[in-house]
Design goal:
About 25% of the residues lie in helices and about 30% in strands. The protein has about 210 residues and is of the alpha+beta class. The strands form two sheets. Strands 4-3-6-7 form a four-stranded antiparallel sheet, with no helix packed on it.
């Protein structure tokens, strides 16, 4: 906030700053070009010889957009959740290369995995939040993630919510597994939710459509 106030004093009223800029408009971009932080750049540059304040105003907007982009990138959030089911020694996506490829001289016949090895993997990747101190080694800050919770329902047990947790120590990804007898009796996961926590404070969440 102090940076924005100082920039307002620097450029005066030559380039009014927008009343609000959200993380989504900075990171993803706005569908309306008029709301882009770089809107009006050619005209401002064209008037640079006559009005240096226009260039200073454009620079202030660029600095604000850069600062907000950095803030958004360090906000705790769930970046990605992907799932993969393992039922055989060869995944279905690999069948065209190892089974159906007539040019191959090596024939491979997949077999079913044992009950203990059959599973559904959920790869979860998250942004842990800002570190306490900048440096090559991440050190959790006051708003960093110290617990990742994976909740899910299964097709054979739709009224039961199961839960798995993980405590990250310098990592930003983990694979949650539903496997063995749990996978055999409950079936595939029908809905899920991933939440990021700092002690008792909920920082971010991401859920499937059916949750």
């Amino acid at each position: 906030m102090n940076i924005i106030v100082n920039l307002r004093r620097l450029v005066g009223q030559a380039a009014p700053l927008p009343s609000s800029i959200s993380c989504s408009s900075v990171v993803r971009g706005s569908p309306d070009p008029a709301h882009s932080p770089t809107a009006g750049l050619p005209s401002a540059v064209g008037r640079a010889g006559k009005s240096p304040r226009a260039v200073a105003g454009m620079l202030s907007l660029f600095l604000i957009a850069t600062a907000l982009t950095t803030a958004c990138s360090t906000t705790p959030r769930v970046v990605e959740v992907t799932s993969h089911t393992h039922l055989q020694t060869l995944d279905a996506a690999d069948l065209p290369y190892f089974v159906d490829d007539r040019a191959s001289l090596i024939r491979y016949v997949p077999v079913d995995l044992s009950i203990a090895d059959q599973r559904e993997d959920f790869y979860v990747h998250w942004n842990p939040g800002p570190p306490s101190k900048p440096g090559p080694t991440f050190r959790p800050g006051p708003s960093s993630v110290n617990l990742v919770k994976f909740e899910y329902r299964q097709v054979a047990k739709p009224n039961t919510v199961f839960e798995k947790t993980f405590e990250p120590h310098g990592v930003t990804a983990h694979v949650f597994q539903v496997r063995g007898e749990e996978f055999r009796s409950g079936g595939a996961v029908s809905a899920w939710r991933v939440t990021l926590w700092n002690d008792d404070q909920l920082l971010a969440e991401k859920q499937s459509f059916l949750w």
